[in-house]
Amino acid sequence: MAHQTVRYAPGLPDDSRAAVAEPTPSCPVEITLAALRGRWTTLVVRELLKGEHTFTQLAQALPALSDKVLTDRLAQLADSGVLVRDRRPGWPPRTSYRLTPRGHRLGPVLQALWDWGAAGGDTDWGAAENDSGRGAAEDDSG
Amino acid sequence: MAHQTVRYAPGLPDDSRAAVAEPTPSCPVEITLAALRGRWTTLVVRELLKGEHTFTQLAQALPALSDKVLTDRLAQLADSGVLVRDRRPGWPPRTSYRLTPRGHRLGPVLQALWDWGAAGGDTDWGAAENDSGRGAAEDDSG
DNA sequence: CAGCATCCATTCAGATACTG
DNA sequence: CAGTATCTGAATGGATGCTG
């Protein structure tokens, strides 16, 4: 397989932001990682991918998650434009959370993360000296 | 393998590991995030996607990265099966690092992270109430 | 050259207690 | 019900000094 000649990295856009010499918040990769950063974050997103949830429903779906961290994650994800809060008036208070379109687009991202992580158990990666065989991760899932 | 029916969330496999109630190391998503965890990690991978590098070359490409953290990242990535160390005998010592096939497969993952993060600046995500578009961003311009 | 050992500042997660 | 405030322990990142 012929390696690229003038290209930088396969799979990476030819964008000036791809050439940063240190972690900067304006890098798209950093933006996404910042949105997903921290424990529990992806699980909260996964729950929301199933549909709208209230605070309590999320807490029930993830029993080991403290309300403080849940609050943190929800704020973080709202701040990243992943979800929106829908606070309804009256008593008792009921707030539901749902993904934005942008939040839904996290689906493919999580899928990519899943695929890479799932491929490790099956394929060899201990005796990997040669990188010429560039097999795509052909998991049928999804 | 025929598990096409996605009952839970769009984009997530119908795997028992997709139903975990707390962050567990065996979850594929966690595996990938663990491999990419920490500051500088994706930048080190990006450098290596360009080709083989020595320790010093990596340090030069990322000047603000301390050797301690670089060592940490390299160990972490080697542990995740992303790269291999090629230590050559003689003096001065020269160690080069290169991606494994598995490491190269991180390209699409980084691409997915990039795409999502890059889409934020352009599209609306403030007034997002309704989800309709589920377009995969496959801009592979680089 | 390519690291490892040690110390220190900052961040993070979880627990507990309290409120509109 | 849906949070906020405060505290503690653990993990992380970075600086400095030393070695095969």
From TrEMBL, chains A, B:
Keyword Transmembrane: no
Domain of life: Bacteria
Keyword ATP-binding: no
Keywords associated with the record: DNA-binding, Transcription, Transcription regulation
InterPro entries linked: HTH_HxlR (IPR002577), WH-like_DNA-bd_sf (IPR036388), WH_DNA-bd_sf (IPR036390)
Region (Disordered): 1-20
Pfam families in the cross-refs: HxlR
Annotated ranges, domain HTH hxlR-type: 27-125
PANTHER family, sorted: HTH-TYPE TRANSCRIPTIONAL REGULATOR YODB, TRANSCRIPTIONAL REGULATOR, MARR FAMILY
Name of the protein: Helix-turn-helix transcriptional regulator
